[in-house]
Amino acid sequence: AASTLIAPSILAGDFSNLEGEATRMAEAGAEWLHVDICDGQFCGNLTIGAPVVKSLRSKTRLFLDCHLAVMHPESQVQQFAQAGADQLTFHPEAAKDSEALAVAIRTAGMKVGVALQPGSPTSVALPLLQKGLVDTVNVMAVEPGFGGQPFQEHVLEKVRELRDLFPSINIQVDGGVNPNRTAKLAKDAGANILIAGTSIFGSEDPKRVVSALKQA
Ligand code: DX5
Ligand code: ZN
């Protein structure tokens, strides 16, 4: 449907030209920009952090959806708020106190996201969701850390379950999303935001891919 938001994952973009990539994505019709913050510990890649998000903030009006795939996410809330992140997503398994962290993110003026790895059950996020502390659930269809992995279809069951329980929450599917097949699977299951790296940045015509994802 037309109400699907697209969040290109900058992990698949050119890190030496983030301003150009953000502009290109805005021109392609994306509303959000998904930024994977990986610490090389929680997941096996080391990407970028709050200082880079701060620089990006000054160059784009896209909604900056920052996905913290890091240990000790609570230690980074203030830095990301000051950097101008719009949403901060964390993995409950990595947090000392998920509830306190969600409250801290909101208090700092950001939207709260909770991410589920492919192997994480929905129960990891349910208490937070039931208390109304979450704006967006990120249902990962690949292991955190790297783009270009195959879409794990079993995560669709979690999307269906969450959509059933929470009709108005944002549900993102992250990883392996393409216009050929998996975007439709994710949307049919109830996702309203699609995160896509390889399929958008790997195309010569990102605008066409963004429209195809919206219409899948
Ligand atoms: C994996 C990330 C994803 C990834 C998606 O750590 O959370 O955002 O960049 O990339 P693709 O679309 O290539 O699977
Ligand atoms: Zn991500």
Approximate shape: globular
The largest pleated sheet is described as: 8 strands, parallel
The side-by-side strand order for the widest beta sheet comes to 1-8-7-6-5-4-3-2
- What is the rounded Rg? 16 Å
Mean pLDDT, to the nearest integer, reads: 97
The first-level CATH class name: Alpha Beta
Which small molecules are bound? D-xylitol-5-phosphate, zinc ion
Helix content: 25-40%
Ends distance? 8 Å
- The CATH architecture can be named as Alpha-Beta Barrel
Order of helices and strands: EHEHEHEHEHEHEHEHH
CATH topology: TIM Barrel
**Number of self-contained structural domains:** 1
The DSSP helix count reads 9
**Approximately how much beta-strand content do the residues carry?**
15-25%
Unreliable parts:
none
Care to count the β-strands?
8
